[in-house]
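My current task is to audit a protein record that another person submitted. Please read both lines and tell me whether the tokens look consistent with the sequence. Do not assume that whoever made the record got everything right. I have pasted the whole thing underneath without changing anything:

===
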Amino acid sequence: MISVRKPENFEKQEIDDLEDAECVEKEVLLGDPEGVKTFAMRRFTLGAEGHTPFHGHDWEHEVYVLAGKGKIRTDNREEVLSAGDAVYVPANEEHQFVSESEGFTFLCLVPRRGEPTTSEV
């Protein structure tokens, strides 16, 4: 069955319980409650000077930048990102998203096993 969620029903979650995360807000747009079988769609918004932890995990994910400017950092690379950019992050690649503006916002799609019940990014 088709599931439609309206923005007023998205629950914003401050990511403040992860070491080295600053000014990160996460919303799960589609996932288990909607019956999604294979992936979770999440929206992240990083405030001014916000960043995710430098981290890796055993699943790939795809990112689409909606608004603002930021960077993605890896062990040996740094790329500037802006609205319209798409990013593929392979499994086990350590990475970090860093805001360069207020409201750096992106969609992040992960396999359902990549959307834990905790606030892990």
User: Anything to note?
Assistant: The chain has a mean pLDDT of 91. Residues 16-114 form a domain with the Jelly Rolls fold (CATH 2.60.120.10). The chain has one domain: 16-114.
